[in-house]
Each structure stands twice: as C-alpha cells, then as structure tokens.
Amino acid sequence: MLFRGNRILSRHLRHKLAFGRGISGTGLKSGVQLNRAVFFAAIGGAFIGAATVFATTTKNHEKNKPPQLSTSPIDTVEPVVYADNNDFALAVEKMKKVVGENNVSTDEAELKAQSDSFFSTHHPPDPLKQKPKALVYPLSTEEVAELVKIAHEYRVPVIATSGFTSLEGQAMHTRGPNSIALSFANMHKILKIHPEDLDMTVEAGTSWQDIDQYLLGNDDTSHLMFGPDPGMGACIAGMVSTSASGTNAYKYGTMKENVVNLTVVLADGTIIKTKQRPRKTSAGYDITRLFIGAEGTLGIITEITVKLHVRPVVEFVTLASFPTIKDAAATALEIISKSGLQPNAIEILNEAMVSFVNSSQGQNDHKFLEKPTLLFKFGGPTKKDVDTQVEVARKIASKNLLINLETSSNREDNDTLWTARRAGLWSTYEYGSKVLENKDDVQVWTTDIAVPISKLAQVISETNDDIRALGFGDKFSVMGHIGDGNCHFLILYNSPDYKKVQKVVDRMVYRAIDLEGTCTGEHGVGIGKRKYLNKELGKETVDLMRHLKLLMDPRRILNPDKIFRVDPSDTLDAQFDAAHIHDHGCCS
Ligand SMILES: Cc1cc2nc3c(=O)[nH]c(=O)nc-3n(C[C@H](O)[C@H](O)[C@H](O)COP(=O)(O)OP(=O)(O)OC[C@H]3O[C@@H](n4cnc5c(N)ncnc54)[C@H](O)[C@@H]3O)c2cc1C
Ligand SMILES: *[C@@H]1O[C@H](CO)[C@@H](O)[C@H](O)[C@H]1NC(C)=O
Ligand SMILES: *[C@@H]1O[C@H](CO)[C@@H](O)[C@H](O)[C@H]1NC(C)=O
Ligand SMILES: *[C@@H]1O[C@H](CO)[C@@H](O)[C@H](O)[C@H]1NC(C)=O
Ligand SMILES: *[C@@H]1O[C@H](CO)[C@@H](O)[C@H](O)[C@H]1NC(C)=O
Questions:
Q1: What is the CA radius of gyration of the chain?
Q2: 3-state class of 74 per DSSP?
Q3: Whose CA is closest to atom 3 on ligand 5?
Q4: N or C: which end of the chain has fewer CB within 10 A?
Q5: Which of the four pLDDT bands, split at 50, 70 and 90, describes residue 363?
Q6: Which top-level group of life is the source organism from (predicted)?
Q7: Is ligand 5 within 6 A of the CB of residue 411?
Q8: Is the pLDDT of residue 51 over 60?
Q9: Tell me, what's the pLDDT at 10?
Q10: Could you tell me the distance, in angstroms and rounded to a whole number, from the CA of residue 210 to the centre of ligand 5?
Q11: Would you say the C-alpha torsion 19, 21, 22, 25 has a positive or negative sign?
C-alpha cells in the first residue's frame, strides 16, 4: 500500500520534472533512489514539500554529476511511463495544429493497416491494443520537428513508417493504443541531384524504385543508378533504418556504404545534419552511421543524400543449375574468392525456390530447370567482356557438375530471370496456399542470417537437413545473396506449428552465430531478433546501445522495444509465446 503510494508520488514528480533535464528523464534508475528518499520523507510527515525540495536539489546535483556508468544494463533502467488517454488527446490536438486536420487520420481501416503488415514474420500478439490511435502525415522536416517536440512533451510513442515492408516487426505499436504512426507517405520529393558528384538528396518517403525511374527518365542521369534494392515499395528512410541491401550489395554495398549524409529530427525535436557532402571525412564521430540500422529508435530521418553509381554499359543475367546446393555454393565460392571474376551480383536458389517461381509463372513464360541454381549478373563495357566472364564461370561450374548454363540475350530475358528471383517471397506464399493443410492459414517465416562466405554452404545444408528432419518436407525455400554470405530460408507453416518453426529458426541463428555470423544480414532486428543480440554481440555491447538510446531519447518515445529491451517490465517475449495462433487479418 505504502509502496504503491510511493510509486504514484514518484510518477507525479517525474511529471513535474519532465520539462527540465529531470532525473527520470534519463531513464536511469537514479530515480529509484529518489523514490526511496521521497518515501522516507513521506513517513516523516513533510510530504509534498520535502519531496519538491529534494527533487530540486537532486536536479541541480545531477546536472553536474558525470554519468555513473558507460553502459546501461537493463536492470539499471527504470520502468517507462507513457501518455495516458488525456495527455494523448492533448498531444493529438496540438499535432493537428501543426499538420492540419486533414493530415491526421483516425480512420479505423487506415490505423489497422498501420498496425501490421501481411508479409511480416511477426504480428501483434494483442492486436486490439497494439495499434496506433492516430496516423500523422508530415510534409516537411520542420513539421516533423514540431510533431516530435509535442510527442516528447506528452510522452507519446512515435513509430515512423515509410514503405512498410520491413519483416521483423519493426513498425509494431508495442505501446499502443496511445501511440502515433508517423507516415512519410507524403514526403517523397527528389530535392537535389548532382550527377557529376554521383549523389542525390531525397525526402524520407522516396522509394528506391522511384529513384531508379527518375534517373532513367532524364538524359543527364540515365547513365546513373542507385544500388540497394530490397523489397518492392521500400523507401529510403526505412532502408537507412534497417541497413537494407538486396541483390546488388555484392557490388554496390549495403545502405551503410550508400548514404552520404542525413537530416535527422532528434527525440526532443532538435534538427541536425549529420555531415557535409564530401565522399570522405575524418571530422569526428560517424553520426551518419549511428542512424543506419537504428530502426527509428534514435531519431526521425527526414532527408537523405545517397550515393549513385554509373550503370554498367552492358549487363547480362546468367543462370547455372547444379545437382546439389553444395555444388552451386562451391562454384560461387571459387568465383568469389579465387577466380578474379567480379560479377555484379550472385544469388543462390534451392530447387524448391525455382519450382515455386516456375509454378507461379504464366502459361507461356520462361520455365526454369528445377534444380539448385546460381544467378549471376555480369557486366562490362562491351558484350565481349561479358562473354569472356561467362566462359570463365562456365569452366568453374563444370568442375562442380554443372547441368545447364544459360545467358540472357535481351532485356526481356534478363528481366524474366531477375524478376524470378525478386518474386521469391510471393511465389513461396502462393505455393503455400496450394500445399499446406490449412489453406486459409498460410504463414511464411522469412529468416535472414549471414556468415563469412566460406561457411554459407555449411549453414544452408545443415539447416536444410534440420527442417526436413522436423517434417516440413519441401515446404520451404532458400534464396541467398551468396556473394555476401547472406541467406534466407522461407518456411511455410500453419499457425499451430509456430513453436516448431521457432525452434528451427533458433537453431539456425545459433548455428550462424557459432560460425562467427549474424542473426540478421539485412532485415534488421525489430522485435523478432532481440533475443539473439546478447549472444551475438556480447551483453556489454547491447548495454552500450541502450545507453546511447537513453541519452538520445530519454523518454523512450522513439519506436520503443525495438532492437533491445528499454523497459525492465517489458513482457513482449512472453506475449509472443502465448499468442502464436493469430489471424493477422491486417490487410482485408
Ligand atoms: C518481398 C520482400 C522482399 C524483401 N527483400 C529484401 C532484401 O532483399 N533485402 C533487404 O534488405 N530487405 C528486404 N526486405 C525487407 C524490407 O524491404 C526492408 O527492411 C526495407 O528496408 C524496409 O523499408 P521500408 O521503407 O518498407 O521501411 P518500414 O517498414 O516502413 O520501416 C522500417 C523501419 O524503419 C523505421 N523508419 C521508417 N521511416 C523512418 C524515418 N523516416 N525515420 C526513422 N526511422 C524510420 C521504422 O520505424 C521501422 O523501424 C524485403 C521485404 C519484402 C516484403
Ligand atoms: C495537409 O496535407 C495536404 C496534402 O495532403 C496539404 O496540401 C496541406 O497543406 C497539409 N497541411 C495543412 C496544414 O493542412
Ligand atoms: C548533406 O550536406 C549538404 C552540404 O551541407 C547539404 O546541402 C545537404 O542538405 C545534406 N543532406 C542532408 C540529407 O541533410
Ligand atoms: C516448370 O513448371 C511447369 C508448370 O508450370 C511444369 O510443367 C514443369 O515441369 C516445371 N519444370 C520445368 C523444368 O520446366
Ligand atoms: C539486359 O539485356 C540488355 C540487352 O538487350 C542489356 O543492354 C541490359 O544491360 C541487360 N541488363 C539488365 C540488367 O537489364
């Protein structure tokens, strides 16, 4: 009872301190000491008065005190407090004044669509609660800054979304329903382009496909391209935030290599530019990189300057089929690490993946040999240069029992071949709706690990055997960005098998980590991969991430609960375990 009183009072105090650099504002547990002091003061009788005095002196004292720890282990962090209904309503009223009534939606269908996405591997365990109550559409950096300032003042969680294609539950409203979805759907202007410097600046909600279209559509830029190519519809801010890549990363790098600088709104509404525009700099900390892969937990990105590359003059797609995935992987490994060839891309597909693609093609479309397959892009100044490379590749492949090799002869062909690769997730899903027992409950678990390239064949074959041993037969597909040691198993299942799949995925991830790899090569952590980070990076490294988070976002309003826990009382993992049978019904 007394304890409870103490809590309520401390919450009251926290509120009072909220506008300064308050103790509780840091999120660190020094607040606990305060609670105790307040508690004894209360017993002594001098209730509110003493508490206030104490709070003020502690506040001044705290200001001059150097930080106590270099990291923030979760048990040094105090539980978080967010806006109640009343504060939330006040915040939304203020937000409407910033962006106009029309740019704040409370339409149920729109809110529902922002609470889950069809292809995400994870769905909200409590969908009635874990959704936003308002969807806000800003139009400029200044508007975003005003909105975030209000969210900060009222302690409203803010989850930014751009293309909404992320796969690990990154955009889930774990702290709903008093939560805001900040949509960049209306911020997609191309702001500036410097063809001679190979860079361009875009707003957060510009998609990578829009950039490509824009570049191709102008005479002075049609020789240029943008590298990273993740899911269709993904936008640059989301791609920065997940450190996305795709099939082009082997040659052109991931988002980590493709961002020049950023404009970011910090958690209290401060606007920063991360650097100037040169390709290289040694001017202090790499603040740009701090936001790459941060999943909207450290700041809201409003503008991005990206690098451009010169498009290959000619580039053809070559496809090689092998009897086993090991033969395919061995060929890729020799090409990458011994041959001196520099393909623009190398992808690996298992036979199931090829057959899913095959069966989702139209009647007269190109059909593929249903065997483990390597897909290459070879490019150069002339067709002859490409031919030379293909011949070297053929020789290496022949040593590894090559069954068939074909090279596209025109744009349609290479589009068909590459589109086949792109269609991987969709065609796996489509196949699931034919072969799973319950056809109305098709689930796809999209995994994503990366290992040093020499270990990829081992991970693939061990995981392959593990999945079969569990009785999944051929209800899974494999595709990999083999040039980067990155692969995806797409496992089809009905909801009741959730735990079984979870086990296979856990084993796969630990296998990758044991081989000095990572739990995610490109999809990011979201809520799906949080549990692996301590093992992969070391607890202290994760505690340092949390420390940075608490310093930069003391009220923990920016995409809470993603990447690592920010609240010791967070029960998400248990919620996922309990609520695995779901109707994700997000998009109907
Ligand atoms: C069919 C399919 C294929 C895919 N293939 C690939 C692939 O090959 N490679 C790959 O890397 N990924 C792939 N993905 C995953 C996905 O496309 C990427 O994760 C992509 O980077 C997400 O971008 P988005 O714009 O959709 O982001 P969203 O899903 O909208 O958001 C992703 C994260 O970024 C944050 N965020 C969004 N906007 C902002 C902002 N303005 N400021 C700060 N944070 C923000 C969100 O809060 C969230 O945490 C695939 C997905 C699908 C559905
Ligand atoms: C709201 O959005 C529309 C476009 O969707 C825009 O024209 C308008 O200026 C926005 N802002 C305000 C304050 O109404
Ligand atoms: C990058 O830096 C240049 C030079 O200061 C600036 O003009 C540009 O707006 C910056 N880009 C972003 C996205 O902030
Ligand atoms: C590809 O798919 C078609 C059905 O669409 C099937 O008839 C054919 O056998 C498959 N395999 C090959 C190697 O074409
Ligand atoms: C595809 O084929 C055409 C030749 O018709 C070629 O010019 C082009 O660069 C190729 N590559 C891609 C990726 O479209």
A1: 26
A2: helix
A3: 411
A4: N
A5: low
A6: Eukaryota
A7: yes
A8: no
A9: 42
A10: 20
A11: positive
